[in-house]
Design goal:
Layout lengths: L2 H12 L3 E8 L3 H9 L1 H4 L9 E7 L6 E7 L5 E12 L3 E8 L8 E12 L2 E13 L4 H4 L2 H20 L2 E8 L3 H9 L1 H7 L6 E7 L6 E7 L5 E12 L3 E9 L5 E13 L3 E9 L3 H11 L1 H15 L10 E7 L3 H9 L1 H7 L6 E7 L6 E7 L5 E12 L3 E9 L18 E10 L2 E10 L4 H8 L2 H25 L3 E8 L3 H9 L1 H4 L9 E7 L6 E7 L5 E12 L3 E7 L5 H7 L12 E11 L2 E9 L3 H9 L2 H15 L9
Antiparallel strand pairs: 1-7, 2-3, 3-4, 4-5, 5-6, 6-7, 8-14, 9-10, 10-11, 11-12, 12-13, 13-14, 15-21, 16-17, 17-18, 18-19, 19-20, 20-21, 22-28, 23-24, 24-25, 25-26, 26-27, 27-28
Helix pairs in contact: 6-7, 8-9, 10-11
Length: about 650
């Protein structure tokens, strides 16, 4: 056999041959997939150990070209060409590739199918390669293909591990077409409605979505802290991908910088997978963003808010909008919407009463109520709180219900959506408050959306009567309104037991304060003129002392006491009044009235706190007073099981 014939036979031996190579990486799938599709990253690992890639043109899209020049440690260069056939981010790549001779002709060609399988925080990769073309000189290269590719994957493993330590990847599948998700992410009128974690609002100065365009916005935290942000768009490929560089952070604090890639993947069933992939300059910078700003959980909450917003953008889901202005301060209107005792006085259609209700004002909490019509017919409803920004915004999922708190159909409309999403915003100007309600179907079918759309006029009439009742209630309350905060709960315990939990310092120390707080000092002399002192300690070890004097003690029905928080940390006082004089007690002197109402074995506990000014009250509401009291009362409920009347 001639030497030439031997070479041809060697090449023929590889024709149609298949190779299967697997590797598992300690990095999330999005990170590994990006390393295969980003030419800058691929140039850092492609080829055996010691090789570099001075030329790396890698257009990862169907039909995109491949041209890579690998350089060996001895300086020899090995050009490669190919083309992409299919791409399904972040799951699969299909492409052809092979080495080129001096004239640019293929020596051989391999068809590669690369799959990426997510296994928790790791990724299993499989390369299925088949030889589709060969030439006389192919054999010596193909013989070393598996060894060379395995070395490449070892280099990729090193790169992926380093990249994973600098990255945050958040992904979610939305029940909406890709074009709609793109619009929600790029239209500032939509972005302001959902951007940021729960409780945040956003003000956008400009959002110019084009390469080189600037996105400048300020995120406002629930505690009033501002977070200025500035991003510059680097790549915009509608409706597939957006890349931008970002800088921002807490006002006056350390900023964070990273580069984020949004990818929009169209899925079957008119769904979209959105992936937000952020790369930080170092692992320390990434860890700082996670610890200081809650970047991972914040990203998840942001995408959850986007999921709630998308149904309101679909053409079939026409948003119902109602606006009404009341001659009352915003704090009073907010209380009317968020306190069970006040809701009972006005909420519902005209002529209806609300004999039963319970309210747990926290994200995930429920307002469950039963109304009775003038002819005695019962109707139950339920709100599930999604977002609470006192006193500005309330987002709830609304459904019809039953006495047990389930989700039921509309009693008069079989096609009414099982759930609707309501967003209420409150704005104040010159002592008046404008309430805007936005209402849309949530996770609804097409026929349910149509039922909602066709009911707008009836909804407007029904809400008009409800708003008239709210207006009447506010007019009556405004005459007596003052700088007061009231919270009320019905507790499943006798009044004497609840009194004991308040009047005994041993019991009070077990529940006073928000969750995870302790009370290393709890001294109480419960009699008219008697003093008390409580030191609350936060999980971080910060002490919040409070002291005062009992003015009235009527066992087991009523307590009146002063509250002096002057020993609280300076930072706490500065949040109430940033302009205060050094050492000034920004909270002033508070007067608290606690009443215990017997309800046939249960107890309605009402806590009213009067402040020296409305400004102080509103500042403390913004700082989370309502949430703090809610958590404290939850702890009280848990502690009541350990209380026995007359004993410790």
């Amino acid at each position: 056999m001639s030497n030439r014939n031997a070479k041809n036979k060697a090449a023929d031996d590889y024709a149609g041959r298949e190779f299967v190579i697997t590797h598992e990486f300690s990095a999330p799938r999005a990170t590994v997939f990006k390393a295969w599709t980003d030419p800058e990253q691929l140039a850092r690992w492609w080829g055996p150990r010691g090789f570099t890639n001075p030329v790396c043109e890698w257009d990862a899209r169907p039909g995109g070209a491949i041209h890579v020049v690998m350089r060996a440690p001895n300086g020899a260069e090995y050009p490669m060409g190919g083309r992409f056939r299919a791409l399904a981010a972040p799951e699969r790549l299909v492409f052809t590739a092979g080495p080129l001779d001096a004239k640019g002709n293929l020596l051989f060609e391999l068809l590669h199918a690369v799959t990426f399988v997510e296994r928790g925080s790791r990724t299993a990769l499989t390369i299925h390669s088949r030889v589709t073309k060969t030439t006389a000189g192919a054999g010596k290269y193909l013989a070393g293909y598996e060894a060379g590719m395995n070395q490449s994957l070892e280099r990729l493993a090193d790169l992926a591990a380093d990249s994973a330590s600098r990255e945050i990847v958040v992904s979610r599948v939305f029940d909406a077409p890709r074009e709609l998700v793109w619009q929600a992410m790029t239209d500032p009128q939509h972005v302001v409605r959902w951007w940021g974690p729960n409780g945040f609002t956003t003000t956008i100065a400009n959002m110019d979505v084009r390469p080189g365009g600037v996105w400048q916005h300020v995120m406002h935290g629930p505690d009033g802290t501002d977070y200025p942000n500035k991003s510059v768009f680097q790549e915009v490929v509608k409706p597939e991908r957006i890349v931008y560089s970002h800088g921002g952070g807490r006002k006056g604090g350390r900023s964070v910088h990273f580069v984020t890639t949004w990818t929009f993947e169209a899925l079957d069933g008119n769904k979209t997978r959105l992936t937000m992939h952020s790369v930080f300059p170092s692992s320390a910078a990434r860890d700082f963003a996670v610890k200081e700003y809650g970047a991972i959980e914040g990203g998840k909450q942001t995408l959850a808010r986007l999921a709630e917003h998308l149904p309101m953008m679909t053409p079939a889901a026409k948003e119902f909008v109602l606006t009404r202005t009341f001659a009352a301060p915003r704090a009073l209107v907010w209380r009317a919407w968020t306190e069970a005792e006040l809701l009972q006085r006005w909420f519902g259609p005209k002529g209806f009463t609300m004999p039963a209700c319970s309210l747990d004002l926290r994200p995930g909490g429920v307002f469950h109520y039963g109304m009775k019509s003038p002819d005695g017919h019962e109707v139950w409803g339920k709100w599930t709180f999604r977002e609470i920004v006192p006193p500005e915004k309330l987002v709830v999922i609304i459904s019809f219900s039953d006495a047990q708190g389930g989700v039921t159909r509309h009693p008069l409309s079989a096609h009414w959506p099982l759930e609707t999403l309501s967003t209420m915003t409150l704005t104040e100007l010159d002592g008046k408050t404008t309430v805007t309600l936005r209402w849309a179907p949530h996770a609804a079918t097409e026929i349910e959306r149509q039922a909602f759309d066709s009911s707008h006029e009836g909804m407007r009439q029904g809400w008009a009567g409800t708003m008239e009742q709210l207006e009447a209630y506010l007019a009556q309350s405004a005459a007596n309104a003052g700088p007061e905060f009231v919270i009320s709960r019905v507790l499943d315990a006798p009044r004497e037991l609840v009194w004991q939990a308040w009047a005994d310092p041993v019991h009070m120390a077990r529940w006073w304060g928000p969750r995870a707080f302790t009370n290393p000092v709890c001294e109480m002399d419960v009699r008219p003129g008697g003093a008390y002192r409580i030191v609350m300690r936060s999980p971080e070890g910060v002490d919040y002392p409070i002291k005062g004097v009992f003015r009235e003690v009527t066992e087991p029905g009523r307590l009146v006491l002063t509250m002096d928080a002057s020993e609280h940390p300076d930072a706490w006082h500065d949040m109430i009044n940033p302009s205060r004089r050094k050492g000034e007690n920004a909270a002033g002197m508070l007067l608290q009235t606690v009443t215990f109402e017997d309800l046939d074995g249960q107890t309605r506990l009402t806590i009213g706190t009067r402040f020296e000014s409305i400004a102080i009250r509103d500042a403390m509401v913004r700082m989370g007073m309502n949430e703090g009291w809610s958590q404290s009362l939850e702890r009280l409920v848990e502690a009541l099981g350990a209380v026995s009347i007359g004993a410790r």
